[in-house]
Specification:
The structure is a homodimer. In chain A, helix 2 links the parallel strand 3 and strand 4. Chain A contains 19 helices and 23 strands. Chain A has three domains: 192 residues, Rossmann fold; 148 residues, Cytidine Deaminase, domain 2 (3-Layer(aba) Sandwich), CATH 3.40.140; 145 residues, Cytidine Deaminase, domain 2, CATH 3.40.140.20. The first copy, chain A, has a twelve-stranded mixed β-sheet with strand order 10-15-14-13-11-12-20-19-21-22-23-18, with helices on both faces. Chains A and B meet through helix 4, helix 5, helix 8, helix 10 and strand 8 of A and helix 4, helix 5, helix 8, helix 10 and strand 8 of B. Chains A, B: One of its GO terms (cellular component) is cytosol. Chains A, B: This is Bifunctional purine biosynthesis protein PurH.
């Protein structure tokens, strides 16, 4: 039977007392008896609500500095007995049902974050609260368990609309919330106690699952959940337009946001298969978008794009979505930004296959990263450091600015290892000119990045054919080649030189650094060591 | 004060009764009073141990079909009161201390896995047990809380060696275990209740943390943990020799094991930057190793290697670790296998920078995969399906065997997208001849895989120079090019043809399939559609 239950007797014992009077008043007005413990009782009585002291029900005093307040045969029986099967037994034992528990627990987490001493921390482990809450939750068929002040307004409404009764659905929902609360609570305690003993343990909880159409591939099922209590989550993204996001969209969206989150001027990242194939930072957003796109104008089709500033209509008109010649239309999968101008939305919404997402890129910043592999967890602090030191190790000094160098490091950090990024400054715009990534051999990545760069320069040159190679040479000389890890051999330097590169940035640290530096000196290349590797697998 | 506590009064109430007599006897022999509930009491009395019925302590009967057995002001006070501050108050209230709780909880998980009805599931939510356990744990300064039968033998020893007392360290350890138990218990309940309501929630817990030297890079801290209660875990790997595994070693080790786990004959995978650059399956392990190595003999240096069968000495002698000419020595980072012949270990152990790991590859098989991104979780079923259908869509039929085709699909599934694998059969060995992966553009991957294949064939040919191209042509014609996703344009087919490929396998499903197939027909290529994409990001 899934019927409503009239709340005739309610037990209040709350640590967080906010808003508790309103709920008690609604119950009282519907003829409910309120039982309460010390502090809560004072608050309710001050609000003019008659309260029965809990010791009148238990027959026991509040004892041991508050460690014993509610736990008793009387209270837990009143919560737990089966109103049908056990009715006679309850009557014989003088147990009168309690139909509602309003309880929230000692603030263990807050107290812990205050850095209190161990004894105080232990004192803030609630025993009576979870007992009541769990007992009431187990017997939710007859009992309502209220653990979150945010639920009070809805409950007040439901009570007033139903003569002081609550529905089965409400009680079921409250029960789920209660067990999730006690699970979270003991997770915190267990983790804190392990920590005190010098043992790291990790407990993660996720809910609000959205079912995705499928996973990485159509034969895989997939779900997208939010981490409980996380202040920020990618799950909070605001979906403005289009078909629902796919699993791969979400993965790439994260990478896109991650790529622009640390850039301060207007920036745009273009992601394909989880790597940025375009990245640019500068002043004019349209220009930034065009230069990001030019990083790999073929792969950019079907990409996932993120901006770090409000997107203007003039920016996205670069997609030419209305072009009569369909070949001129640039199809992309997702555009994400902290905001969109209404005219930009209007323009983009005309295209149903384009997904628009509002999300602040900075909110993907994380202190820790988690990788779950076959029943194990790799936990690491995130790679949030960009530059440790900067040392020119060659005879030649580089002429490139620090801002370009930093941009190059940021670009290469986003690429899967082995990673090479070629970046340049063009009229105060910082641009990823070409990238190579995900290769078992660094030489592959170097070749891919340089070939891409050369191809892009070729396409960009609009002058006379005879001048093209000269233009490419000039641009390559102003560019910087950045490597995510050290060069194991001088071969990468030779390849870079063959494409006209004059500045190379890498962490250094190889046993063959000397021969790598010598090769640079021989070929007139400036090399900067950063001391900081940026592997990403 | 971190002193020992003599256990003078213990409360037993266990659901799992295994081994409980031994602990009770050790206590009894040291003069401890045993209090117990119904079922546990019978077991102990049968074993000749005198037991006080709990109702004599509480003054209450066992009530409501067992829902109320232990919860009472008397029991929880006896567990919770501060033996120093609250001693007088306890005496006045007639509360005598209980120094130990032995309790394990109703088997909620087991009952749930039996698929019982909802009411039975609810009945198996333990209320009294967690109350006692949590109260005893909170007061661990004076009370020992025993929740795991596996701890009984050590406790018996400690009690016998210390006149029935337990140390602070033991009580602290038991307390941590207790809160981890109640956290797990409520996590299960919360998840099950959410599931009943049609809401997916996920709770993951990890412990046994090992501190790694650093994370993906030296400026990142990292830890390696085991999932609690997982039947298998990569964390269980048996480390036989060498420097400790690094973060990146573990990530690559997983990929190496994953690449060989589904191969039935002897197999070897060589991983570099998380992608297999070598993979082979066949009969003779040495031959398998050599052919895997030949997939990318340059990148294989510094790789992570997995075998799916016991490793023989003759196999690893291929590394020539004792070669006088140091250039002939093949340095690799990690070798993992389900087992090693003692002679193989003896040979490998001479090299201190080589790490040896014993682990059964099949144990990395997972039903579900988790990806945690910025406060969110992507959960998907793993890509464990290899072939849905097999349809030749071209005029030409392929002449390659199914086993090669399946091997190619398995290879490409392990590679980061976009992925292309070129595989061939050589004297009944299945070999990854070349791969391209991690590229924003499929054409890049196709070129990388074919160029690698051609290079490998060139190196392998030992005949007269004039015959080399002919040999390469013959081998390419027998090889299969496998793509993890459909070809968006016919350009990949043209590139494949230019390298002499005659068989292409891909899922199909592009809007331009027709023009791709036409291009195959025009170029004399057989194309097989599988209907199954294998993206991996």
């Amino acid at each position: 039977m899934k019927h409503s239950i009239k709340i005739k007797r309610a037990l209040f014992s709350v640590s967080d007392k906010s808003g508790v009077e309103a709920l008690a008043r609604a119950l009282h007005q519907n003829g409910c008896q309120i039982i309460s413990t010390g502090g809560t009782k004072s608050v309710l009585e001050k609000a003019g609500i008659p309260v029965t002291e809990i010791s009148e029900v238990t027959g026991n005093p509040e004892a041991f500095g508050g460690r014993m307040k509610t736990i008793s045969f009387q209270i837990e029986s009143a919560l737990l007995f089966d109103r049908e099967k056990d009715a006679d037994e309850a009557r014989q034992l003088g147990i009168e049902p309690i139909d509602m528990v309003v309880c929230n627990l000692y603030p263990f987490e807050r107290v812990k974050n205050q850095g209190v001493d161990f004894d105080t921390l232990i004192e803030n482990i609630d025993i009576g609260g979870p007992t009541m809450v769990r007992a009431a939750a187990k017997n939710f068929k007859y009992v309502a368990v209220v653990t979150d002040p945010q639920d009070y307004p809805d409950l007040v409404t439901e009570l007033q609309d139903n003569d002081g009764a609550l529905s089965y659905e409400t009680r079921f929902r409250l029960m789920r919330k209660a067990f999730n609360l006690t699970a979270d609570y003991d997770a915190m305690i267990a983790t804190a106690m392990d920590e005190t003993a010098g043992h790291l343990s990790v407990r993660l909880a996720f809910d609000r699952a959205k079912t995705l159409r499928y996973g990485e591939n159509a034969h895989q099922q997939a779900f997208f959940l939010r981490q409980r209590h996380a202040p920020y989550s990618l799950h909070d993204l605001e979906f403005l337009h289009g078909k629902e996001l796919s699993y791969n969209n979400i993965v790439d969206l994260y990478s896109a946001l991650d790529a622009v989150k640390d850039l301060s001027k207007t920036a745009c990242a273009i992601i394909k298969h989880n790597n940025p194939c375009g990245l640019c930072e500068g002043n004019d957003q349209r220009q930034v978008f065009e230069l990001a796109w030019a990083g790999d104008p073929v792969s950019a089709f079907g990409s996932i794009i993120a901006f770090n500033k409000k997107v203007e209509r003039s920016t996205v008109e670069f997609l030419h979505l209305d072009a009569e010649n369909k070949m001129q239309r640039k199809f992309v999968e997702v555009i994400a930004a902290p905001d969109f101008a209404p005219e930009a939305i209007e323009y983009l919404k005309k295209h149903k296959n384009l997904r628009l997402v509002r999300f602040e890129p900075k909110r993907v910043t994380q202190e820790k990263e988690f990788k779950i592999l076959a029943g194990s967890l790799l936990l690491q602090t995130s790679d949030n450091t960009l530059l440790k030191e900067k040392e020119t190790v060659t005879q030649h000094e580089t002429e490139v600015d620090d801002d370009l160098l930093n941009f190059g490091l940021l670009a290469v950090r986003q690429l899967k290892s082995n990673a090479i990024a070629v970046v340049r400054k063009k009229d105060n715009y910082l641009q990823l000119l070409g990238m190579g990534c995900g290769q078992p051999n660094r030489v592959n990545s170097t070749r891919l990045a340089l070939e891409r760069s050369r191809e892009n320069l070729k396409n960009e040159f609009t002058g006379e054919d005879a001048q093209r190679e000269r233009y490419i040479k000039e641009q390559m000389e102003k560019a910087v080649l950045v490597s995510d890890a050290f060069f194991p051999f001088p071969d990468n330097v030779e390849i870079a030189a063959s494409y006209g590169i004059k500045t190379i940035v890498q962490p250094g640290g190889s046993i063959r650094d000397k021969s790598v530096i010598e090769k640079c000196n021989e070929l007139g290349i400036a090399m900067v060591f950063t001391g900081l590797r940026h592997f990403k697998h």
